[in-house]
Amino acid sequence: MKNDKHELKEVVSELKTYLEFQRDMGLKSVFGSIEKKKEPAQKPQKPRAKPAEAQTNTNMNEDIIVIEDNVNLFDDSQKKITLEEIREEIGDCTRCQLHEGRTNLVFGDGNPKARLVFVGEGPGRDEDMQGKPFVGRSGQLLTKIIEAMGLTREDVYICNVVKCRPPNNRTPEADEMDTCEQFLFKQIRAIKPEVIVCLGATASQSLLKTKGSLGSLRGKFHIYGNTKLMVTYHPAALLRNPNFKKPLWDDMQVVMKELGLPLPNK
User: Fold this and answer.
1) Domain presence at residue 58
2) Distance between the two ends of the chain, CA-based, in angstroms?
3) Are 94 and 176 in contact (CB under 8 A)?
4) Taking burial as the number of CB atoms within 10 A of a residue's CB, which of 61, 73, 199, 208 is the most buried?
5) pLDDT tens per residue, range 32-83
6) Are the beta carbons of 115 and 195 closer than 8 angstroms?
7) Exposed, middle or buried by CB within 10 Å (0-12, 13-18, 19+), for 90?
8) Which strand (E) or helix (H) includes residue 158?
9) Of 155, 156, 160, nearest in space to 138 by CA
């Protein structure tokens, strides 16, 4: 009997996970029906007003994460900072060992007043050679994704957690990220986007300060100050596994809806 109850509990929990995911994808009526069962007197829209209330998914390693402050980045009383000033502050950086193998520092590229910011892990070989983010094969795919959203690269801003290429394109070490991510935080503060898209686990772990897996973090908005943050797959992952294309595009359609962009006809 105990095993039956345990299995039933797991089924209910998994069903709740599925329905809440559908809710995050915009199917309000599906989510509304399950909420009415829980609290008949409560309107189904109310839980969406408080991201913390959505932390009911017991099957996921991470729930919705709220970053309320990061070195006073969201304090409007602080001095306004520009991207040019941040680049000047970085200078000819030698703060970590990554500078030893770089050809060019890759700061970022795009609209300094963008509503949407994409954050990747770090520069690759092509980016290191050209001094611009996402210009290799992954970058070409990202450009196609942006254009499919009805935007251009000039409409958005693209940057990385670290500004110098790690040797052999390895994942940045923790001390390298700790050293460099302060400038990413400042870039976001200067731009003040409405939505941030973290491309891959490294970017999401840096901004959300979590060790959660990409699978547990994607599919819903997290909160970074006054900005909504979506975690999705890095374009390089799509080049290795085309099966990731659909979930990434699902994530981008949630972002489009948030920004009021027209969705493509099905």
Assistant:
1) no
2) 46
3) no
4) 199
5) 333 333 444 444 443 333 332 223 232 334 489 999 755 555 555 567 899 9
6) yes
7) middle
8) strand 157-160
9) 160
Q: List the structure tokens of 254.
A: 């949630």
Query: Given the structure tokens 């996970």, which residue do they identify?
Result: 17
State the pTM of this model.
0.75
| Whether 120 contacts 203, CB under 8 Å | yes
How far apart (Å, rounded) are the C-alpha atoms in residues 105 and 64?
A: 33
Cβ-contact 198, 119 below 8 angstroms: yes
Give yes or no: residues 42 and 75 share one domain.
Answer: no
- Do residues 57 and 14 touch, judged by C-beta distance below 8 A? no
Residue 77 neighbours by CB distance under 10 Å? 5
Helix (H/G/I), strand (E/B), else coil: 160:
strand
Cβ atoms of residues 235 and 142 within 8 Å: yes
Looking at the structure, do residues 118 and 248 belong to the same domain, yes or no? Answer: yes
User: Looking at the structure, do residues 42 and 72 belong to the same domain, yes or no?
Assistant: no
- Ramachandran region of residue 80, left (φ > 0), alpha (ψ -120 to 50) or beta? beta
Q: Which helix (H) or strand (E) holds 66?
A: strand 66-67
Q: Which residues pair with 110 in a beta bridge?
A: 157
